[in-house]
Structure formats: C-alpha cells, structure tokens
Amino acid sequence: MQRVLPGPGSLRRVRYGLADAAVILGALVLLAVIARVGSESFVSFSPPQVVPSVSLDPHRLPEYAARSTLRMFIALAASFLFTFAYGYAAARNRYAERVLIPLLDILQSVPVLGFLSITITGFIALFHGSLLGLEAAAIFAIFTSQVWNMTFSFYQSLRTLPQDLVEATAAYGLSPWERFIRLEVPAGAIGLIWNAMMSFGGGWFFLAASEAISVLNHNYTLPGIGSFVQQAVTARDMPALGWAILTMAITIVLVDQLFWRPLVAWTDKFRLEQSASADSPRSWVYDLLRRSRVQRGIARLTQPGGDALSRVLARVSTVRPRSGDRRRDAHLADRLFDVVLLLVVVGLIVWQGRSIVGSVGVGEVWHVLLLGLATLARVVVLLIFATLVWTPIGVAIGLSPTLTRRAQPVAMFLASFPANFIFPFATLAFITLHVPINVGCILLMALGAQWYILFNTIAGAASIPTELREMADDVGLHGWQRWRRLIIPAIFSSAVTGGITASGGAWNASIVSEIVSWGTTTLTATGLGAYIAEATTKGDWPRITLGVSIMSLYVVGINRVFWRRLYKLAETRYHL
Amino acid sequence: MSEALITVENVFKRFPLPEGKGEFTVLDDVDVTVHRGEVVALLGRSGSGKSTLLRIMAGLIPPSGGDVRNGTTPLSGPNPDVGMVFQSFALLPWLTVIENVELGLEARGVGRTERTKRALRAIDLVGLDGFETAYPRELSGGMKQRVGFARALVVEPKVLFLDEPFSALDVLTAENLRGEIDDLWNAGTFPAQAILIVTHNIEEAVFLADRVVVLGANPGRVRGEVVVDLPRPHNRTSPHFKELVDRLYEVMTNPSLDMTRAWQPVVADEPAPALRSPYARPLPHVRVGTISGLLELLVESGEGEHEVARLADRLALPIDDLLAILDATVMLGFAVVRDGDVRVTDVGRDFATTTILRSKDLFRHQVLEHAPIVATIAKTLTEKENRTMRGDFFLDLLDEYYPADEARRQFQTAVEWGRYAELFEYDAEDDRLSGSDTLVAAQVAQAATPS
After folding, report:
1. What is the pLDDT of residue A67?
2. Does B430 touch chain A (CB under 8 A)?
3. Percent of chain B, pLDDT > 90?
4. Nearest-angstrom CA–CA distance, A438 and A430
C-alpha cells in the first residue's frame, strides 16, 4: 500500500534562493492581476439569462451525479495534458525548471476555492454569459485540485529515469516522441496513476463547493450533485440530503471499481524492477476485460491507424544534436536571469500591492494576518488531535495484514467522500446544541483532512520489516518502549506525509468550514477561511486577492519552516 | 544427560491454503531437544521449515499442535530465556550500537548505569570496542552482525538461537566471525548455556555443532541426526570431519534416504512412489540454461563420478541452489546421484555436447517423459481444438497441491521448460498458452513409441 504523496518534491528540492522567492511572490501578483481583469470585465456584462435551477427530486440524482462525474473526468483529462506539458518542460529546460517548480510550490498552496473565487467572473466573461462559463470555472477549480500532485510526480519520474534505459533509447536513435511514448510515460505511469487516483478522490470535495457559488450576491448553480446538496441545505430537506449522500457513495465506489482499479492493475506492468512484484494489484474488471475478446478486437482495429500516427509524429519530432556544454557562461546567465526576474516581480508587486493596500488600507492587512493566525491555530489543534487519535488505530491496523487488506478500501473511500456533504448535519447539531462555530469548525475541517493521517499511518505500519518486529518480540520490547524504540521511528516519514496532506486539506476546507449554513441560519467563525468566503460572496476583489495571498503565504511558509525540516529528519535519521 | 533447556514434542505447524483448499503442512511431528552445554545445528534445505521451527522454539509463533517447553514449563509467548541473532541483523537504524545492544536490558527494566556497563562488556566481547556511538549504516555487514550477537548475549540467555547468522555476509567475513564465535564457545565462559543454529551450510554445521539434526522437506520433519564426535575445536582437515561432511552431503542429495538405517552405501535410485496426480510432483525451480551449464561442466571434468561436496566448493554455490540444480538434472534423466556422487548419463552427455537444435529435441523428449506437470499441460493443449488455454486454468489445478506462491512458481518453471522445448508459447499479457506445431508432431511421435 503506497503513501499518499502531497508533492514531497516541493520539500526536497535544491534551494534556488532569490529566484525561488521571486517566483512565489510573482505568482501571487499574477493572481491579483487576473482578479483585477476579471472584475473589470464583469462589471460591463450581464449575467446569464437562463440560470439553471436544481430540483430536489431524488429521481434526478443519478442524472446529476452523472454530470458531476463528467466534470471530474474532463478536469482529469485536462490535468493529464497539463502534467505532460509542464512536467516535460520543467525537466528538460533549466530555466523553465527554475521558474516552474517554485511556481508549482505556490500553486499547490493556494486554496482551491481561492482559485475559484478569483477566476469565476473571468470565465463567465470569457464565455459571454453562456452556461459554459460556469462549467468552465467549476471544471477549472477541480482541475486545480487534481493537477499539482500529478505534475510533481511526473516531473520526479522524468528526473529519475533509469540511466541505462535512457542510453539505450539514445543509442537506437529514438525520436523524442518515441522516447516519450516508450520510455518516459511508462516510467512515470505508476506514480502518475496513483497520484491521479488520490487527487481525483480529493476532487469530489471541491466539486461540491464549486457547483453552487455566490458571486456578487448572485447565486449560480450548475446541475450536479454538489448543487443538489446546497439546495437541500437551503430548503432544510433532510431526506433529500440523505439520498444525495447515498448516491455520492455509490458513485465513488463505481468510479473506483470501473475506472481506477483496472487502470492501477494495468499500470503494474510498467513496474521498473525486472522481477514481478509479490502482490500485484487485482481488479475484477481488468481480469474480465483481459479474458474477453473485445479488447483484442479493438486493438486490432486501431492498430493500422495508430501505427501511421506514430510514424508521422516520430518524423515530426526530430532529434536535435546536442549543443556543447557551456559551463563557463552558465553562472553568469543564471545570475542575470535571477536579477531580471527579481526586477520584474518587484515591479509587479509594487504596482499591484499599492492598488490593493490603497483600496483596503494597511490596517486591513494586519487584520487578515491575525485571522490567518486564528485559522492556523485551528489547523494545529486538528493535527494534534487527529495524530493522537488515529495513529494508534492506524498502527494497529497496519501491523495486521488481514486488517490492512480490509481497511484499505474503506480508508480510501473515507478519504474520497466529500466531507462537505456531511456538514449540514453537523451544522444542525451545532445550532441545536449551541456549539460555538469557532470551535465547531475544527470538527468540520477534520472530517475531510484526518483520513490522510489514518491512511498513511496504516501504510507506514504495514511496511515495518517483519524481522524488526520479531526482534522486538524476542528482546521483550513491550508497551511504551516498543512505541518509542520501534514503532514511532519506523512510521515517522509516513506520519509526516500524512500530516502535510492533512494540513493542506484542512486549510482548503477552512473556506467552506468557517462559514456554514442551515436553511436561513448562517454560522460564521473568526478566521481567514470565512474572510475569503465572505469576500467572494460580496465580490470584493481586493479583499479576495489579499485573503488568498495571505493564506498561500502561510501555507508555503509553514511548509518550509516546519514540514521541510521534519521531512529532512525523516530522511536522515528515521530512514528504514 | 544434562538438563533439557528447550524441548519441542510432536509439534505440527500448518498454514491454511487460500480459498478453503485445505491446509499446507510446514512441520510434521517434530521432536527436538536442546540440552545444556551443547551446540545443536538444524540442517535442511529451503522448504524444510527450519526457520519456522526455530521461531516456534523461540516462542515467536505458536505451533498448530504439540508441546513446546522451556525447561519443564510449557511456553506461551516469546521465550525470555532465548536470545536470537537474525539473518539480516535486525538492527534499529535510528539507534547507535550501544543503544541497540541495551535494548533487551532496557526492556527488562535494568537501570541506566548497570545497562551501560553490561552493554560495554558485551560490545568488547564481540570485538566492537570503540564503535559504541556508531549508527548501523556506518558499519559493515560483519560488524552489524557482531552487534546482533552482542545484543543477544548481553542478556545472558539460556540458549542462543542463530538463524542463518552468516549467510548474509561475504565468505571471508563469515569465516572470520564463525571462527570467533567458535573460539568464544570453546573457551568455556560463553554467556549462554547452549546454542541452536539453523543453517543450510553443511561444513558450518559440522564445524560448530556437537550434533546435527537433519530436517526433510515437504513436509518438514526430522529425518535423523548425525553426532559430531570430534575434539574441540573441530579440525576441518581431519579425515573424520570429511567423513561426516560427506555423509551429510549424501543424506541431503537423497531426500528419500532413510537415516535410521546403519551407515552404509545405499543405492539411491529407488523409483519415486506412484503419485495420485502429475501435478503433485514438484518441478525444481531451475532454468534450462543452468542445467546445460552444469552438464557441460561435468562433461568437461571427465568421465565417471564427481563428488557433490567438491562440486559445491568449486562452483561456490549455496548448497540449496546446487541441490536444486542436481534435482532438476536427475529428474530429467541427464544425471544420476548416488552416495553423494553425481554421474552424467548418456543422454546427458549427448545433450551437453550436441547442437542447439538437437539438444532441444532431446530436452523435449526428456521433459515429456519425466516432468509430469509440463507433459500434462502439453497434453491438455493438444486436446483443445484451437490448441490454446488460459494459464489460470493450470494455476487453479496447481493451487490444489501447493500454496499460492509456490503454485505460481511451479507454473513459471513449467512455462520456461515448455518454451525451451518448443512445446508451447505463453503470452503473459493475455495469460494464454498456445500449443506449437512441434507439439503436435511430438505428441504423434510420443504416442508411437512404447513408453
């Protein structure tokens, strides 16, 4: 069982120093510009004439679920294309790498719903008021929740291609296209598919939040299961909510069994070690397809077309002769690049920063920073509790192979199921029991995030070598000593991975957890998430940009100061 | 007879086969006792359950049946009077040498100063003085295993259990460490009262042990015992040492030899007992290329018989691998093993010296006659109209006789032999076996000749 990877590449890179910081700030500025442009174009245009409504009739749920799933898959396809292009560019070109990888770092830290807030009006404007604009915005939001992990994974696999295979493809004169298809994609396939599966699961959460969104005090809803839930919440329709949850569960299981499992089973053949793996992933759908003649029939039909296409592509992408090493000039060029980048970014920051601070005031910036601290406190509390509660459970499961086998699909289901479908029940409970939302929203954030800790702890415990456990038995290590000497160090790096993923999930969830409503009652907590959500509803572009930027900076900052250090510790000291 | 420290009596160990296909017996009615003051070696090939037996005796896994006793008290849970040394060292990578050694003492609640004192003494004993604060990744294999020994000895166990302790080390380091342990034992102040060592290295067993318990495979059981009545330290050049080693080679190369009979040269070509099913006769997991290689080597070395013991030395192969290769060669009728000597048959000589094409013909003939699994697969393919069959079908049949992993390995070996013999082809993507043209011709020829 593999670990959920949140893009540990972002924590393990070589320091780029100045250029690094420049890119991060530059990206935020770019977002500000986009928001600006979007807001301006929005002012001068009218919202779509026919805004689709969502019916609360449970019989329409399968249709809504299908539409939502379609959006997810369109986003997935876009993610794959983006991954190949971006990862390839970053891995091949030194200068592209210096910009693209820090960029990935910050993009990964921007809350997904922040992206949505910023781009929704832009998309609506782009599609001139048709429904397509809303769809595009929703799909884009889901895309941003899926793509960064996949890109990192592909980039990493490109950088760690086995040297002998690379030499073989060069020696036999393979064109870049052929090399891409025959070596680079297969080499990255397993990690890519695994990351895609994990991110896809996480995407359901954002789907629900992006199908019904309030901008400038208008409510836009796309027909889908997420907006169904929102409608049910506004109408206080509990049975409808129940049906929606059931439908969502069935959809997740179906997609997993019919799409992901066969895909994972198929990519096992791209395993790079020469010997077969001991426990290869099984999928009944995959076995069924293999046994049927259908698949072979299709392959035979498409073969001539596929062959022709390959030949054309191979001829088009010629092999460029290698230019000589220009080491001497490299340092100078790098320095120049850094300086130029820095100048551009500083210019942009000054321009945008002045306008934003001008419209909201410096005091507002401090206010937002404090709100960020409040949300940070919640994330910390969440992490501490989740670790204390789920780590022992995860270890207990992981140490038993039968339990692990049974628990894995359950844990994956829990991690995929959009927790915000459950929020209405919790909100109702908060209202009835008079639980202050400032504390209650921690529970809401946890509902989505804590499963990653469980998931990764199980994986970590399952990979403790049997011999070490036997040795601990033989030597008589029990209780706290066993935990201190064997278990905690052994699962440390898995726990860190789980922690980072949970932390990221918690920040993202804060935007929909710190403001919740049931019917006409709305509970608002003091925090950065609520700030961003409120600003989005009002359409207050400077505040949206400010809020999103500050949240991103918090996430990136904590990543570097805290998580990166822990990761280093895991790699050096607690490496098995 | 000195005090019995650890006893197992009538011990069984069975694992359930998946999908309710019954049980797989790893150990069958085993009796072993370790007495104070002796070194016992458990010798056996892989599959003889010797590691399982060791773990049952250490209390790390429970038996399916029978008694396990620590002295006179029945054992329930890990035996606190046993210190175990593991094949791949089992050191905690995040602890220093001294912290690793202190582990057992810490678990027993020994105070800090006392712990450190005893640990330093144990580290000194195994010759690692000066490395107390090193981490395992800074140490060589031999040094890591010394830490393993120190950790086991610091608690002064009644019995020291060694699970193939030198097999992960290179030959010279292993030799060095083995000698030092032997010296320590012979000096009479060894921190443990007895040693139980599991090994598949015959020379090592005779060198270190007072008696060698030989385990058979499929299922694991005690075949018999060879007492090493040599003065300590055991001199490897003495004729009696060589006699004992030869005796053990003879026993190991002939699994059906009855050890309880008096020691005399026994003719080893008794026919295998009639089997219920062709799938019940396992194929040794050896590649055809390896069989060819061995035969060529034997043919080049001259006519007549070659001692298996010398062969093992020459090829520097682990005994398990060599015995498997010999099994395969004998099974296919290319060689004969008797009294610990191997002789190439006429067919074998022919196979080793002729052209590739003709050697394939010979191989095909031998395989169809002597390897039931492959022959049955070939036969089943001819009976189908399109001469293809899913691999899963045969795997299910093999599952009835072997645990899942072993069934898969049997299938893979059968496929390799069948492919070499050009009897069938296998598409791993589709999991499909297809009979070749030569198959049909071979079947016709086989049917014509009286078997």
Report:
1. 87
2. yes
3. 45
4. 11
Q: What does A342-382 look like in DSSP terms, one character per residue?
A: HHHHHHHHHHHHHHHHHHH-HHHHHHHHHHHHHHHHHHHHH
Ramachandran category for residue B340: left, alpha or beta (phi over 0 → left; psi -120 to 50 → alpha) = left
User: In order along chain A (576 residues), what is the average pLDDT of each group of 10 residues?
Assistant: 40 53 73 68 52 76 88 92 89 80 79 78 73 83 88 85 84 84 84 85 84 73 85 85 91 90 81 54 73 69 78 68 52 76 77 77 87 94 94 92 84 85 88 88 89 88 89 91 93 88 88 86 89 84 85 86 85 78
Complex ipTM value:
0.75
Query: Using an 8 Å Cβ cutoff, are B118 and B105 in contact?
Result: yes
Distance from C-alpha of A498 to C-alpha of A460, rounded to nearest angstrom: 10
Chain A residues at the B interface, defined by Cβ less than 8 Å, are: 269, 290-291, 296, 465, 467-468, 470-471, 473-478, 481, 485-486, 489, 573-576
Residues forming beta bridges with residue B435, ordered by sequence position: B424
Query: To 10 degrees, the CA torsion angle through A115, A118, A124, A125?
Result: -140
Q: Name residues 48-77 of chain B within 8 A of A (Cβ).
A: 55, 58, 60
**Over the range A487-526, which residues count as b (16 or more CB within 10 Å of their CB) and which as e?**
bebbbbbbbbbbbbbbbbbbbbbbbbbbbbbbeeeebbbe
Spatial distance between the Cα atoms of A547 and A31, rounded to a whole number of angstroms = 12
Q: Are B276 and B397 in contact (CB under 8 A)?
A: no
Is the Cβ–Cβ distance between B330 and B338 less than 8 Å? no
Q: Tell me which amino acid residue B183 is.
A: D
In whole angstroms, give the CA distance from residue B307 to residue B293: 17
DSSP codes joined into one string, A211-249: SEEEETTEEEE-SSHHHHHHHHHHTT-HHHHHHHHHHHH
Minimal Cα distance from B57: which residue of A?
A: A474
Closest CB from A296, A476, A576 relative to B108: A476
Q: What is the pTM of this model?
A: 0.78
Output the pLDDT for position B271: 47
Our CA angle for A132, A136, A140, nearest 5°, is: 175
B82 and A474 within 8 Å at the Cβ level: the answer is yes
- The number of CA neighbours under 13 Å toward the Cβ of A550 is 26
Number of H helices, E strands in chain B: 17, 16
Name residue B33's beta-bridge partners. B7
- pLDDT surpassing 90 at residue B278: no
Give just the sign of the alpha carbon dihedral B78, B82, B86, B87. Answer: negative
Cα separation, A278 vs A171, in Å, equals 33
**Cβ–Cβ under 8 Å, residues A390 and A453:** yes
Which chain A residue has its CA at the smallest distance from B408's CA?
A278
B290-336 pLDDT per residue, tens:
999 999 989 988 888 888 888 887 887 777 888 889 999 999 999 99
Which H or E element spans position B73? strand B73-74
CB of A395 closer than 8 Å to CB of A491: yes
Helix orientation angle between A437-462 and A423-433, rounded to the nearest 10 degrees: 140
pLDDT at B149: 95
Which CA distances in Å does A144 have to A113, A148, A188, A480, A551? Answer: 9, 7, 20, 43, 16
Q: Could you tell me which chain A residue has the CA closest to the CA of B99?
A: A485
Q: Per-residue pLDDT tens for B195-205?
A: 999 998 899 99
Pairing of strands B432-435, B388-390: antiparallel
Give the integer Cα–Cα distance in Å for A166 and A152.
Answer: 20
pLDDT score for A13: 46
Q: How far apart are CA A176 and CA A377, in angstroms?
A: 50
How far is it, in rounded angstroms, from Cα B100 to Cα A485? Answer: 10
